Amino acid sequence: MSSEPAARLEPTVRPPGLLLVLSAPSGAGKTTLSHRFRAAHADAVFSVSVTTRAPRGAEQDGVDYHFVTPERFAAMVAEGALAEWAEVHGRRYGTLRSTVQSTLDAGGLALFDIDVQGGAQLKAAFPREATTIFILPPDAAELERRLRGRSTDGEEVIRRRLDAAHEEVARGLASYQYVVLNDELEAALARIEAIAAHARAGLAGLDDPAAAAVAARCRRGEADVGGWKVPKGA
Ligand code: 5GP
């Protein structure tokens, strides 16, 4: 019989990575929140989506999006290269499966700025690893003010965007795990941080009581939705 001491058991399994999904109607302040979150988490990967829309302003290929032709997008769908995809405002957008896979393999954190249809698909495919957060603008009047403020488009285009934004809010309030009202930037950021910390702790089999308490107050059904109407049955 060997007199060697028994080898100590070290955990060899890394906790699974966290797929943090942030969705919002345009005009909710999601981009600012996403940038602030990334600045505070140097290790977080931002999922660069594939899209068939053209670059806008200073957007760079491979940084803001991977800009592709509709044919290339269709080929990627056929190859199974996308973990989710959806049509938004007549253009296609999708998440690279490789981004999801490398995050899960590394036990890292990836941030997804995708629409509610895509968020629902990721949650269905990765029920444990994906956490969905819906960001609400302070109120409907502020949403309209922001949409008008950033647009030089005509009334009809603005109306269409407003309708789409209201539709997105209804879907988010009906299906996402967490709802964060962006009435004040720092407070909204702190809530997103707490939800992420709570989710990461849960994946590692740990508890972070302070984060859990904040996250509990952001759960759909519990969250402060300001003046927004929660759809029946949500
Ligand atoms: P924009 O064209 O203004 O950059 O984005 C329009 C919408 O598409 C936003 O709601 C954005 O979150 C969403 N989006 C961006 N990338 C993806 C993606 O990979 N998948 C899905 N489903 N939506 C996306």
Indicate the low-confidence ranges by residue numbers.
none
Question: What do we call the CATH homologous superfamily of the domain at 18-47 and 109-218?
Answer: P-loop containing nucleotide triphosphate hydrolases
How far apart are the termini? 63 Å
Looking at the structure, what is the overall shape?
Answer: globular
Q: So, CATH architecture of the domain at 18-47 and 109-218?
A: 3-Layer(aba) Sandwich
Would you spell out the secondary-structure blueprint of this structure?
Layout: E1 18-23, H1 30-40, E2 45-46, E3 49-51, E4 65-67, H2 70-79, E5 82-88, E6 91-96, H3 97-106, E7 109-113, H4 116-125, E8 130-136, H5 140-149, H6 155-175, E9 178-181, H7 185-203, H8 209-218
Parallel strand pairs: 1-7, 1-8, 2-7, 3-4, 8-9
Antiparallel strand pairs: 3-6, 5-6
Helix pairs in contact: 5-6, 7-8
The protein binds guanosine-5'-monophosphate (5GP).
Guanosine-5'-monophosphate binds next to strand 5, strand 6 and helix 4.
Considering the chains and any ligands shown, give keywords for the structure.
single chain; 234 residues; alpha/beta; Rossmann fold; 5-stranded parallel sheet; 8 helices; 9 strands; binds guanosine-5'-monophosphate
